[in-house]
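Structure request: Ureidoglycolate lyase, uncultured Sporomusa sp.
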Amino acid sequence: MKIVRFEFEGKIAYGLLATDNQITVIDGDIFCGPYQESNKKVALDQVSLLAPCQPTKAVCIGLNYHDHAREMNLKLPEEPLIFIKPSSALNKPDGEIEFPSISKNLHYEGELAIVIKKTAHKIPVEQAGEYVLGYTCANDVTARDIQMHDGQWTRGKSFDTFLPLGPWIETQLNPHDVGIKLLLNGEVKQISNTTNLIFKVPEMVAFISQVMTLYPGDVILTGTPAGVGAMQVGDTVTVEIEGIGRLTNTVVRG
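Returned structure:
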């Protein structure tokens, strides 16, 4: 099931996307429920897609692909390395990524994102799946020079527009065996499979919930595979995940 968040005729709504690209509008709360399908339908090409959820925060996992660790010649972490992107960084499918005027080195990082279904606080690994609504595509946009200069990651990861999400939430997906790729101006730059994840979805959800409460609509970015690199003003960047779809954004001068 694909859950979309969209704007149509000045109104924002959630809906279910069918294989014929028709959206059935949802009445109710997709996170806490209950919700039901209405009798209202609209075509996908008539709406403006928005980020599929509105997280209070995005919790990101650093160095979580075996191929990326090998690429960087780094030792595998013993536990998830986490950092946060603020909600103000949220960006939508087809949205513009702003290249900050104070940066000279902007990077893409294609990632699978977990969307949290209900409040998670100190939950066990065995129950983590109950707290996941589904999955979407993400780009962990990074001002790499600022990240390296600061010696920590907050500023370089947190500029407005640095959290593109979408195009929708897929609720029926095996997150541990799907292909992931990133294309820059149509050229494949990252290609891997989530079988290369170091920490799996239940481990990540449970681990983070021991530190901070996760709320409905929060997202966890599960890490990026090998092939991270630079973007320039005018570039088009696409994150494509098997079973979900494509998230495409363009880079503009900030």
